[in-house]
Amino acid sequence: MTEREEFLDIFHRYVTRPGSEKLLDWLDTKTDFFTAPASTRFHGAYDGGLCAHSLNVYRVLRSSFFEPDTDTEETYAIVALLHDLCKIGCYKSGSRNVKGPDGKKSVFLIERFMKLKVEEAVAIRWHMGGFDDAVRGGSFAMSGAFEKYPLAVKLHISDLEATYLMETRGE
Q1: Of 119, 127, 82, residue with least CA distance to 103
Q2: What pTM did the predictor assign?
Q3: Pairwise CA distance, residues 149 & 96, whole Å
Q4: pLDDT tens-digit profile of 103-119?
Q5: Whole-Å CA distances, 168 to 43, 49, 52, 94, 131
Q6: Sign, CA torsion 44/129/162/24
Q7: DSSP secondary structure string, the chain?
Q8: Is 163 exposed, middle or buried (0-12, 13-18, 19+ CB in 10 A)?
Q9: pLDDT in tens, 122-160
């Protein structure tokens, strides 16, 4: 199974929210999500790296943190698979980024098609942790988000593990 097929399988299996099919169609037919690199110089810096990274984040989040009594498969699939939509159209192999990623942009893009729960939106918004421009600028909002929404911490940790422990530069 290709990474694109695996992404689509997980998405179709767990994400049933109104608007999700339109979001998926947009990703598949109008964006470079399945072919884009996750970065130009770091992890996933190859064609398809963005989709591969999203799957790695899902795998870590699901295997490390999922609790069937309190969590939903849909929420975990949404936050992990869609957290980096902000990178659509940003990176081309062998070049610098067009514009840096931003968790707020991911939330905005998702909500053009389907409604997010508050905890999902907060988790996606703050998934970059200390790499977020607001944090680097001195904002303490991330700390408040992490205290109130454990899913935000779990997504951030999963993103770090996928990026620094599972993935390498290039392929």
Answers
A1: 127
A2: 0.89
A3: 33
A4: 688 999 999 999 999 99
A5: 5, 10, 12, 16, 18
A6: negative
A7: --HHHHHHHHHHHH--STTHHHHHHHHHHHS-TTTS-S-SSSBT-STTHHHHHHHHHHHHHHHHH--TTT--HHHHHHHHHHTTGGGTTT--TTS--SS---HHHHHHHHHTTSPPPHHHHHHHHTTTGGGSHHHHTT--HHHHHHHH-HHHHHHHHHHHHIIIII--B--
A8: buried
A9: 999 987 765 555 554 556 677 778 899 999 999 999 999
Name the pLDDT band for 94 (thresholds 50, 70, 90).
low
> Which sign, positive or negative, has the C-alpha torsion 81, 85, 87, 93?
positive
Amino acid code (one letter) for 102 = D
